[in-house]
Amino acid sequence: MQQIQKNFCFDGEQRTYQWHSDQLQNDAKFSIYLPEQALLGEACPAVFYLAGLTCTEETFAIKAHAQRFAAQLGLILVMPDTSPRGESVAQGDSWDLGLGAGFYINATQAPWAEHYRMESYIVDELYNAVQSHFPIQHGRIGIMGHSMGGHGALTLAWKYPEKFKSVSAFAPICAPSQCPWGEKAFTHYLGEARDTWLAHDAVALVYSKGALFSEVLVDQGFADQFYHQLNPQLLQKACAEVGQKLTLRQHQHYDHGYYFIQSFIDDHLQFHAAELTQ
Amino acid sequence: MQQIQKNFCFDGEQRTYQWHSDQLQNDAKFSIYLPEQALLGEACPAVFYLAGLTCTEETFAIKAHAQRFAAQLGLILVMPDTSPRGESVAQGDSWDLGLGAGFYINATQAPWAEHYRMESYIVDELYNAVQSHFPIQHGRIGIMGHSMGGHGALTLAWKYPEKFKSVSAFAPICAPSQCPWGEKAFTHYLGEARDTWLAHDAVALVYSKGALFSEVLVDQGFADQFYHQLNPQLLQKACAEVGQKLTLRQHQHYDHGYYFIQSFIDDHLQFHAAELTQ
User: Fold this and answer.
1) Which 160-179 residues of chain B touch chain A by CB within 8 A?
2) What is chain A's mean pLDDT, rounded?
3) By residue range, what is the domain housing residue A95?
4) By CB distance 3.0 to 4.6 Å, which of A16, B100, B158, B267 could disulfide with B54?
5) Residue-level pLDDT at B138
6) Global pTM value
7) Stretch B99-106: mean pLDDT
8) Domain with B11 in it: what CATH number?
9) DSSP secondary-structure letter at B64?
10) Closest CB from A10, A65, A257 relative to B7
11) Spatial contact of B21 and A271, defined as CB atoms under 8 Å apart
12) CB-neighbour burial class of residue A62 (10 A; exposed 0-12, middle 13-18, buried 19+)
């Protein structure tokens, strides 16, 4: 695991690492924010952040303005890339498929299946590696994400509740089986049999697995240019039906970008810190 | 003046405008953060932020994490580009000359003199335009900047103290006449007569014009990879000799980038808000 960038930030360090991923069959990067407590060797709770389409391991680190409050709370932030990378990796035909669009699932179809294994990469390989290399409190790991990464956070939390103790999302794709982005990605990565999609669809998972968390926090802007892809009302309905407490905050004027995320990031970090230290 | 981007952020708006600049003889962009108070028509104090080499009107808006506290303080932030742009503009031979490297002066030498008039653009054209278009409190305008923009903030404040009531900087080029970046830029933009450079050198201006501000705030990282270009000790000596109060904070471990700036941006905004509302 090679450290390729390091910047001091709020008495902690924002770092980028490159390493070989067995799951992705290629080199991969992730970035991590270590608050001062972690630099001093003190074990801290951690939150994985999964980014959206076209993003990388740098996007959240640069644009979300999370380090200030993570430093105050003593939270480690783990920021993976959004897909496998490299010349040998299937590239896709546009910004919503292939590179930058891994959708946090393990693809089963050619040409994707060889490298597009973001689910196993996140929940097994990276999850274990960061716990070996950094002072993370045992079992105190949360997950959040934005858009495609909000889908990733919700689905991975519902698939692996033993691994993630808290979950939140900004403008998540709540029901990828029922929107153009998800239909395109799942058709390519998983094939045309729609019943196989449901294991990777947050709304379907909530119905099938029921209430798993004490609370879920979701923020959504009403001026989101991709609102039609996101279906927060379906998540709200599913959570209500199974008795899962969902705090869904919908905000006038806010759009889909990081100016929206930065406006509410402190609330999400506070939410995770509270859930993880219970 | 055409608004080309708008994002709601902390109950205010981050906007980008494009307009024709007579000074730069070309189209130019700037971005502006308007806190909620300004959106409601209430006059607010404003701070110009001048960015460093290679940056644009977007850099500070995305990377400095200033909007949260600007919203709290009710401060307008004005973020110009760092040079003229366009195909007709002399491009320069590298990242430290020409595009992205206007140095906030009016060039006197060919081929630069036609478009490279960032000083007049900032202090006359843009200064007047933002006061006409946005609810800025009369006379309550400060200036800050980073690196080349820290040089710009200090020199424009010392040249035009009637226009800027407060000044601060992150890792400024304090004495461009005495460092490689400044020597290269001034030789090209102003010619080889070094005595003409002194009117655009913060340390020389402090000596020649004396103490002009109740306080100046400068932050500098000791791990700054460009420390040898910056000469904070010369600014400290000049301010001490003329009786100008300078709060120079030098920080272990921090480097030259925006992870450093974001760590201390709140202190700068607080400083300007206090100075501007006196």
Assistant:
1) none
2) 98
3) 2-276
4) B100
5) 93
6) 0.97
7) 98
8) 3.40.50.1820
9) S
10) A257
11) no
12) middle
